[in-house]
Every structure is written in structure tokens, then in C-alpha cells.
Amino acid sequence: MTGFAHLSLRELAARGIPFALIARDAVTVEVLTGDVVDVDLLADIPLVDAAGTAREVLALVPFRQVRERGFECHDDGAPLRCLIVTGREALSRDEVLAQLPTEPVPLADAGFDIADEAYADIVRRVIADEIGRGEGANFVIRRDFTAGVDLDPATAALTWFRALLEYERGAYWTFAIVTPGHVAVGASPEAHVSAQDGIVTMNPISGTFRHPAGGATAETLTEFLESTKETEELFMVVDEELKMMSAVCSDGGRITGPHLKEMSRLTHTEYVLRGRSRLDPRDILRETMFAPTVTGSPMQNACTVITRHERTPRGYYSGVAALFTPRAEVGEGEPTHDLDAPILIRTAYLQDGRLRVPVGATLVRHSDPYGEVGETHGKAAGVLGAIGAIPRDVVAAPAAPIDEDAPAPEPRLLADDPEIAELLASRNARLASFWLNPQGADGAGPFAGRSALVVDAEDRFTTMLAHQLRHLGLDTRIAAWDAVTDADLDAADLVVSGPGPGDPRDPSTARMQRMREVVSARRASGRPLLAVCLSHQILADSVGFELAPLAAPHQGLQKTVEVFGMPASIGFYNTFTARVPAGTTAVGETAVAADASGDVYALRGPGYASVQGHLESILSRDGMITLERLVAHALTPVDA
Question: In this predicted structure, what is the pLDDT of residue 4?
């Protein structure tokens, strides 16, 4: 190891040398040493030295960096900390374990900072006041397990890292990062984003199965996999991460899975998303801050909701540890570094003598408050049990082999069970083939030669929608609601007024006012308009329809509805609906597609069309067909 090859891990710790230990596979531990630099922005991460030579950097990115995207947060000043790597060595796990301490780390005054009943009350408020009022589909609210630690921080880090290596399994990264005044030790199950040779990968994980005493079995897992809540929770985060993929990848991203992520106390369900990008990895990281599995959706409003309901700043929880590695060969216009960035969850932090293990639950419309309390206990126990802070689970031993001299078999993965594999695979029957299969080239669709402008009302479903419009041939760009000009609107052949959070009946905010202006001006001009979700409701209001809250929010709900004579399976993310008397099919010049109760799913009129659902969602199996039909109607000349 350059500079410190003669030192043991304990000596590194004793001398106060900044270091990181990273296990990314089953046999090797990477040992990194270097100099620590704190920077303000992701763009400031020093990937090259003064001479222009590329160098390796490990960055701890705190949650407060969402400010770079204009999002709200409790700003605790946690630094964007960079370890500029000057020394690197790869050791075997056995070599590392032989050097690490085994004595347990005593904890004092241990417990959650928010009592169980108080956390259950937060869950109720989020469901009623946020999801119930159209602020979003799901939100992650955290609580912290805290304790006092009277031990040298670096020694504690080495002890906990050893325990995680020995007792945790299934982690994407197992790591210890020790820098002046701060320690982070964890076993993150989830890669947030990676970029390798121009291929960007994201790994949305959601749904948490807490193993019963004695370990998980196929029978106990089956009930979890059949849960509607857990299934829809995963679909929602896949949608949210596809928004990010569509923003950074030229091909929008393709999903594979689902898979199981099996760990010591918990099993999760996951998908993998892949696409191509030539962006600088720091730009990829900025555009994907941060994972919806630890924030919620839509992302911008999720950050606002977190700020309202979490009492304290997040620090590094839900941020990332980002390893930027110089590429051996770089072509013209290609990024100079690859990126590997796990989410900072299932992580213990030690600062100023206090241990902190933040954990959160994903709150959706049908969350049970006490079930979410239990989920936070399970997630905290996964870390605390692994590091020996609480008793570890005792897993049933495998049956003895017939040959007593033969080694004991590896525990069988639940994913290898044929019935479990079939149950997982069956989930994809509900999803849009557009995102599951390779996609054709942009620009060759039926509307080639025309332009579209998508107005973003703070829901990046617009990136997926724009990607689909490009596949229909439209030259498409996106403009934020507070940046789009009247000239922008006039220049577009088709204006797509997009979705966003909030109550469409409340025009008091600047965002809602501007979206109303976009819809009304475009409709008055008679030029082509497509309105989606929130904008569909605004259009319906302008026609004179009633707007009302749904009895139960349709956040992440898949329904088959009749859209002007054709059934369509569509994904819905709405809390409000336009409503007409039952049986209404037209009001004046506006044709109406509604269900038996009068809830309106789509509208068509001279030069305009609208849809309540999200045709771009993975839940919209008939999304592309329906989108093409509505765009074709909007683009049809009014006098045709």
C-alpha cells in the first residue's frame, strides 16, 4: 500500500491516518489511504490534480447536497468529504480479519430518539396530511437509534467492520470510512448509481421482509411476496428511479428483475435499471440525488415533506459514498472516471462519542403505523445485530452432509426456490413492455419532424414522458414551470403540460398559477395541447368540471379503464379527480372518458387531449398505445 504498506490496520488507526476499508466481493477488502479535502459542490470533487492527472477519490456525500438541485433540507453543514486516494492495497478477507479487534464495543444510554408511539403518530400525519392531500405517492421518514461510545473511534470502526464482515451477508458494500472527527461503518444493500464504461446502473430496492426467529423460509417469504403493499412500494420506486435514468441516459433505461436481496435479518425485493450515458459521473450523481427508496416521490416535494416531519438534519443518511476511479482508456468525449456509489443506509456513524444508526420506513397510502414502527426496529437490528450491539439471530443449521469429511453446504438462497422464482417473475406481467424490452431508435416514430415542449410542474415523470415522445418521433425538450416562457410555448408544435404535486383547487401558489396559465393560454390559442395528471385536472376545471379528492388516494395504483372506446391498463398517481355526472360522455365540444361513478380518466376536444394516469409509468402496460392516440388527436388540425 503506497506510503503505508508497512503499517497494519491497527497502526493506521492509532496514527490517525485517514483510511477506508471497502469489501465489494466475497474475498477481497480494498484498503484506501489518502488526504482529506472538504468541498462545497459535487462539481468541486477533485478528480484531477494540479497537473491534470486523473486520480481516485472516495467522497462522502451528505443529504444536504440536495440543495444543489434547489430542494429543501435541514442544513446541518455536514461536509462533502473527499478522501483523495494516495495509497491502495487489496487484501484477502482472512488477512483483514486477522488484523481486526474482536472485543465488543460497549454502548451507553441506547435507544431511539423518537419513541414508538410518537413515530406512529408521524406516520399517521404523513398519510393524512401529505399523501391524503396530493403531495406525493410515498415518503421516507427516519428515526435514529443512538448510544454513547467510550472508545477510540477508529478502534470502534475496525471492530464493527470486522463484525459486519463476519455476520452480515448480501451487502453491496461493506465499509468503514475513518476521517478526522467522523466515522462511518456500514453494510449497504443498495447501489444507488454506478457508471462503468458508459453504462449507468441503478438498483432500486424496496419491500422489507423481517426474518422470523430461526431464519426465513420459502413459506414465510411467500406471504410477503404476495403483499400488494410491498409489490406496489417496489413499483413506485422503480418509476421514480426511471425518471432519473431518463434524465441521464440517452436510451432512457431498461429494467431487469425482480430479484431478492437476502441479508442476515432482512430480505428485500429489487430491480436493476441500465442505460447508456456520456455524462461526467459527477453530473450523473447530481441528477440522481437521491434515491427515492430513502426519500420518496416525487423527489422535490419529498424533500419538502421530510423537512416538515423530521425533527433533525439527516447528516449522511440517504446520501452516498461515491468512489470515482480513473478509467484506463478514455475515448474522445467520454468521462475520465467510472463511478460506484452505494446509498448510505444500514450504516453506523460515530462522532463526538455518540453512535447514530438512522433508519426509515417507506410510508404509502395503506401503511400501518405500527407496522412501519416495526420496520424501523428491523432495519436498526440488522446493523446493531451484525456489529454485536444486540444479540444476533440464531439461524437454523443446515442438515449434516452424508460424507462427514465433506464441507458443510452453503445455505441455500431463497431465490433458488422454484416457486419463489416464479412468484417474483410473475410481477412483470403487470408492467409496461416498453421499459422491459430493448427500445428502438428515437426520431423514427409517427410524429417525426414535429416538436414538443414538456412543462415540468415538479414531477420528473416528465423525463420518462419526454423519452416516450421522442420514440414517437417528436423532437422533445423539457422546461421547468418557473423557467418556461410564452415564446417557448409558441415555438412548440405540441405543448405537454405535465404532472406535479398539490391540490389543483388551490391556485394560490406560483407553481399552480403558472400551470393554469400554460393550460388556459394554449387551449385558447387552439394549438395542440396534451395535459397530464395535475394539468389534466386543471384543464378539466377550465372546462367547468368539478374537482374533488378521492375517497382513497390512487398513488401507485394500476387500473384498466376505457379510454375513448379502447380499454387501457394505466398507472395512476393521483389524490384528486375531475368528476362528471355518471354516464356523461361529452360536455359541449369536450369528449369525456369516465368510469361508472363519473371519475374522469381522459378528455378530448378541439386541439387538446388529457389523461389522468401516467402513460409513462411502468404500471401503464398500454401507455405507449394510449399516448400515441392522444397525441395524434391533439395534433389533428381543428378544422379537420
Answer: 57
